[in-house]
Specification:
Blueprint: H1 3-9, H2 17-21, H3 25-65, E1 73-74, H4 76-89, H5 99-127, H6 144-160, H7 168-172, H8 182-212, H9 230-266, H10 271-274, E2 277-278, E3 287-288, H11 290-309, H12 313-341, H13 348-381, E4 387-388
Antiparallel strand pairs: 1-4, 2-3
Protein name: Amino acid transporter transmembrane domain-containing protein
Subcellular location: Membrane
Organism: Aegilops tauschii subsp. strangulata (Goatgrass)
């Protein structure tokens, strides 16, 4: 999808006619939330990628020095490395030109999920039984209040796993015209992708807890529940990094396109914004735009700096998942469906949909509260740019 098409369609928000009739306030609110959440996703991905790169270094250190060596390493250099890579890839102009990167990212996701699941199963077999319980971590290992906060945060972590809903419209717009129709293709793709994602994530989460019980790390592949085989952990974490490089671009392209289209409309005669420079060193005839280079690089730098200041993966991810889940995945789609199907107000179907939306709102508020509590707890002991134990 070209930048113009991405910015015009930009999000699920602009497809709701009733919101336009209401003066566009809800359209603007939806757009703001979508783009703000994309910024948050970029920060979360930067943190996650740096943790995986750091895990590769520490796994090798543990293998050589032994598990008693704390292997203190700072995550800051790895965030900078990830940021530099994203500056390079962010110069790809259009959404449809990163399809190869998206495919590679999907393959990497399948790779590290399979490795994590396999290691969990092997550990359960080695333990000759399942650890943990149906009620989760035991009181005593954590306080009752900590258990409540962690349970609420988990809802946010789960919601973050389905943040793809932010860019469903952009993905749909890259599909060719019928036959078959875009709606049918997206319906089938969504069912398959959600089912596959849910299956793998639930298996990985359950097997990780079954393998380690109360001592289960927040991240199965970077929390060092597993130390060996270190080379397999290296492969899994490398796959995570490659996956996140691609995912970062897939999520940020709509925001990039929106800002660039707005700038072109605001200053149509500016050569800095609209002019392109042919780059002769690239065989495919790549054209460099100075505004694109400046704006996208600044965006990556800003998200990288924020990531350095808040490198709390689980808590940050839980918060981002919470604040984006209800408005963008539930509320606006439900309102669109009601308008599209012309569902009468106070009918049984309308009431059920509103109850669903209300239930998800309660979950969102609870998950956000749990994640904020986790972040506040982390900030009490955190020192910026310090090494990681």
């Amino acid at each position: 999808m070209h930048a113009e098409a991405a910015s015009e369609q930009s999000s699920l928000c602009f497809s709701l006619l009733s919101f336009r009739r209401a003066g566009g306030i809800k359209v603007q609110l939806c757009g703001f939330l979508q783009y703000a959440n994309i910024v948050g996703v970029a920060i979360g991905y930067t943190i996650a990628a740096s943790i995986s790169m750091l895990a590769i270094k520490r796994a090798n250190c543990f293998h050589v020095e032994g598990h008693v060596n704390p292997c203190h390493i700072s995550s800051t250099p790895y965030m900078i490395i990830f940021g530099v890579a994203e500056i390079f890839f962010s110069q790809i102009p259009d959404f449809d030109q990163i399809s190869w990167l998206s495919i590679l990212a999907a393959i990497m996701s399948f790779t590290y999920s399979t490795i994590g699941l396999g290691l969990g199963i092997v550990q359960v077999v080695a333990n000759k039984g399942v650890k943990g319980s149906l009620t989760g971590i035991s009181i005593g290992v954590v306080t009752p209040m900590d258990k409540v906060w962690r349970s609420l945060q988990a809802f946010g972590d789960i919601a973050f796993a389905y943040s793809y809903s932010l860019i469903l419209i952009e993905i749909q717009d890259t599909i060719r015209a019928p036959p078959p129709s875009e709606a049918k293709v997206m319906r089938r793709a969504t069912v398959v992708s959600v089912a596959t994602t849910t299956l793998f994530y639930m298996l990985c989460g359950c097997m990780g807890y079954a393998a380690f019980g109360d001592n289960a790390p927040g991240n199965l592949l970077t929390g060092f529940g597993f130390y060996e085989p270190f080379w397999l952990l290296d492969i899994a974490n490398a796959a995570i990094v490659v996956h996140l490089v691609g995912a970062y671009q897939v999520y940020c392209q709509p925001l990039f396109a929106f800002v660039e289209k707005w700038a072109q409309q605001r200053w149509p005669k500016s050569r800095f914004i609209t002019g392109e420079i042919q780059v002769p060193l690239v065989s495919c005839g790549f054209k460099l735009n100075l505004f694109r280079l400046t704006w996208r690089s600044a965006f990556v730098v800003a998200t990288t700096v924020v990531s350095m200041l808040l490198p709390f993966f689980n808590d940050v991810v839980g918060f981002l998942g919470a604040i984006g889940f209800w408005p963008l995945t539930v509320y606006f789609p439900v309102e669109m469906y009601i308008v599209q199907k012309k569902i009468p107000k106070w009918s049984s179907q309308w009431v059920c949909l509103q109850l669903l939306s209300l239930a998800c709102l309660i979950i969102t508020i609870a998950a956000a509260a749990g994640s904020i509590a986790g972040i506040m707890s982390d900030l009490k002991v955190y020192k910026p740019f310090s090494t990681t134990d």
